Amino acid sequence: MHCKLWLALSVCLLLPTSDAGRQMPKLSAKKLCADSECSHPILMARALQDYYPGDCRFIPIRQGQLIYVYAMLKDRGNLFWAGSVQDSYYGQQEARIGHFPSSVVEETHPLMPATTEVKTTEWDFYCN
Length: 128
Hints:
The chain is mainly beta.
């Protein structure tokens, strides 16, 4: 009985701290993109250093990796960009779009101008 109670209490304590499947706070209300759906990359960048994310809104980046940048957050979130990491071997890492600090990358190839302002949605910061 004591073991079952301990297990139930442990599960209840761990569930609320999980980032999976929940809405996270917005980093910004707006972002700059190449188009209204943010479906075209703005630029390519190379990671200057490793970045280990604090929660599921962000993606891990290793030094030297290429990142396709799709959006640049505005206003209070202007230090963050959204993009997808490309490993040295295509398909080595599952494609995932997430946020990262713009300070950990250097722009290498401009692709399209980021002239379209788009409102962020709950899906921009949803963790699954």
